[in-house]
Amino acid sequence: MKAQVTHFLKNLVTIKGKNKGLVLYLDDQCAYTDLLAELKTKVSDPALDSDTEVTVHLNKRYCTDSQIQELSEVVQTNPHLKVVATTSDILTVEKSDQLIRESQSETYVGIVRSGQVVKAEGDLVVIGDVNPNGRVEAGGSVYVLGRLKGAAHAGTKGNRDAVIAASWLEATQLKIDDELETMTDELSSLSEQPEMECAYLHTNGTIIIDRLQELRFIRPQISTFKGGS
Q1: Shared domain check, 51 and 119
Q2: Is residue 2 in a domain?
Q3: Are residues 83 and 104 in the same domain?
Q4: What gap in Å lies between CA 163 and CA 218, rounded to an integer?
Q5: How far is CA 168 from CA 96, 124, 188, in A?
Q6: Cα–Cα dist 220/225, whole Å
Q7: Domain presence at residue 4
Q8: How confident is the model over 55-70, as pLDDT tens digits?
Q9: How many Å apart are CA 75 and CA 55, to the nearest integer?
Q10: What is the pLDDT of residues 67-113, one digit of tens each?
Q11: How far is residue 208's CA from residue 204's CA, in Å, rounded to a whole number?
Q12: Distance, CA of 193 to CA of 188 (rounded, Å)
């Protein structure tokens, strides 16, 4: 009589349900070929029979673009599964450089004239006026040491904690992340003197204009000063 050989899965792929689908957590210590083999077995489970969006999480495994593509194709051999994202805990050199750029500030000295657009990946400091139809954009916050009479967009890459501050806030349009506020006469009249004001995004999703002095309470994390009092 021949001995029966039973193959046990090594639990290299963990499937967890989330509100918007499934997350496949992949082991980051095993051989890639072993991972691929188990992934094929896991996604062929007959229980996975409803249309579902899938996120593949690599943990600390570094994968090339072709390997990421291969993993997605294996998952999608099950016609009910669709890979919508691939995430990992790896910080690439490119991502590290991007984070450094976004944490820094850039300074523009001069007038931002009508039709001109000034952009920065991190915070943007403008020493001068932003004229009507001029535009300033920043991945972080926007600070104008002058009159802001044009349009300003802070948090262009999803930073909802970004703020817009100006010596004189008379903007025609304010935008933080994807929330837009067109300045009407009614909004402008909320402040008798638009001097030294800031705009920030409230938790309810609306843009609020307040005195600049309140910024240290509204966004205390903006201050990075480490010196004494």
Answers
A1: no
A2: no
A3: no
A4: 10
A5: 35, 16, 12
A6: 11
A7: no
A8: 999 999 988 999 999 9
A9: 10
A10: 999 999 999 999 999 999 999 888 777 777 777 777 788 999 999 99
A11: 10
A12: 9
